[in-house]
Amino acid sequence: MGADHVTEPGIPVPGRVLVSAKDLENRVAELGARITADYEGKSPLLVGVLKGAFMFMSDLARAIDLPVELDFMAVSSYGHSTRSSGVVRIVKDLDLDLADRDVIVVEDIVDSGLTLNYLRENLLGRNPASLEVCALLVHEDHKLDEKILKYEGFRIPPEFVVGYGLDVAQKYRNLSDIRVVEN
Ligand code: IMP
Ligand code: MG
Predict the structure, then answer these.
(1) CA of 56 relative to ligand 1 center, distance in Å
(2) Which of 17, 30, 105, 174 has the most Cβ atoms closer than 10 angstroms to its Cβ?
(3) Residue 81's pLDDT band (boundaries 50, 70, 90)?
């Protein structure tokens, strides 16, 4: 998608590129190689958090040279604010059983960390053999325990970003790079 991406009245406009498509590609390849090495001999189950993680999940899965399985869940924070409320509702649950599986949660972005914290607790209750997190982007001022972020793509300043799966008002998920939105 080009820089002249069509915008709509009232919806913030994607501005400066924060992470280029090339940098995304390189980093996803590195993460895939690390996961491949760390899970040698295993068949990890990637749990993608819809919708934001769909593009990252698709590229990451192809960068892992193991017989992975994929599943998805959809969560929604109550309300439509750009800030997470910490109250998370499961809109679509997983199809697969997590018992005794090596689970890797694939997230688009950790902002406050409230969503991921809730998800982790929920998924740990399903008795996986192991559970790690792979987040493409992490806002620098997140409130999560650092130990939780085993795999992460880029640490970014606390700005609202879109592209490569991330949206504002459901728009711009199809940008190939990550851009800062301008109000
Ligand atoms: P948290 O619970 O505050 O960590 O928020 C996490 C969720 O909020 C992410 O999974 C995204 O869906 C959304 N989100 C947070 N920051 C951004 C952003 O900069 N752009 C787009 N979505 C975001
Ligand atoms: Mg999300």
Answers:
(1) 14
(2) 105
(3) low
